[in-house]
Amino acid sequence: MTAIPVVFGRATSLLIKQFNWFQADCLVRRKHSSYDVAIVGGGIVGLASARELIQRHPKLNYILVEKEKELAFHQSGHNSGVIHSGIYYTPGSLKAKLCVRGAELSYAYCEKKGIPYKKCGKLIVAVEQEEIPRLKALHERGLQNNVQDLSLIDAKEIQEREPYCRGLMALDSPNTGIVDWREVALSYAEDFCEMGGTIKTQFEATDFQITKESPKDSTDGLKYPITIRSSKETAIQCSYVVTCGGLYSDRLSQKSGCSSEPRIVPFRGDYLVLKPEKHYLVKGNIYPVPDPKFPFLGVHFTPRMNGSVWLGPNAVLAFKREGYNVFDFDLRDFTDAVSYSGVQKLVLKNVAFGVNEMYRGIVIAAQVKQLQRYIPALTVNDVSRGPSGVRAQALDKDGNLVDDFVFDGGSGAIGSRVLHVRNAPSPAATSSLAIGEIIADEAGKKFKL
After folding, report:
1. What is the per-residue DSSP string for 170-224?
2. Whole-prediction pTM value?
3. 199 with 32: CB under 8 angstroms?
4. Are 243 and 252 in contact (CB under 8 A)?
């Protein structure tokens, strides 16, 4: 496949302009405030789910609400942009199946919609002898997951693919790619609007209530018994609700009586950016061999659709759920995190790792030192500080990272009419269309759509 040579900024800008037209059309077309299904959350998972639901049940009325002015503003717009192939995950697990299917669906979708992407490949590089057995195990795992065209390559072949990369052995994944996931998410939104869905931004859901009697002036009786109230004192009525709240999925679920666990804990990742004159150092994705002693993957090299190259990230506890800067702070978010037993246990198990991650976030030279294990020619003068992202990590009370689906409803009468997606397996962007299928399955079964 040949990547479509579209300039990143221009393509995204054009899609946003097109989407703004569709959004306005969505809002004008339906002036009433009652819907069969409401989806809360305008990130890539919420949009993929809304798109799948309206495709399957086109006779129902749908609305998607999002608290921000723009869609796909947080995790969906602050990520590495990689289309993962499904190497890392336990064979036979839902996570593995969703990633492999999601990647296949994503490539097909981008082809159909003319969204630019590149199959630039990925090398998972072993730089020490002790990493080679783990690398070979990853190869076997990838084969069991039906990841296509995987192969182990030696030091000479590494340099043929990545001339400036050094390693003893690598796992070559040519089907790994890159894309602008926000552009993909906005395309899902456009699909949803074209099929008759309504989108309302700047609607922050603050409460879910069961209506005891028909609303004033309503002729619908109790057909739409759930009231979703916003922070701006507006409300919509609906029959069923699906929430895909990302960084706020735990708090949304508690509004209908769900347990506070698993808790969402925000982890910020800070990237460095390779200076333009040094882009020649990196051709494709270069990743480390995962170390099972640590909870997160480690630094890697990621080319972007706009031609830039991101290096990193580290992984540190964020003191604000949507805090993209080092000094961003929210008292409630901070208190929720540090008072949770799961966070305390995770920190105690990974003290040295956590201190090192914080140090690398402050001292660029420390981050570069890690990166030089793969590209020795890299220097501190070749990089500058780049963007940051915040990951919504679901954590249980014992400090374990939750990696699988967590669905919930709530207590009382409202519980049977609400489906909370409290956790969707990472990588959620790659798997988004496949995740949308699973959520639509769950919603269809629970709501008898």
Report:
1. EEEETT-EEE-HHHHHHHHHHHHHHTT-EEE-S--EEEEEE-SSPPTT-SSTTSS
2. 0.91
3. no
4. yes
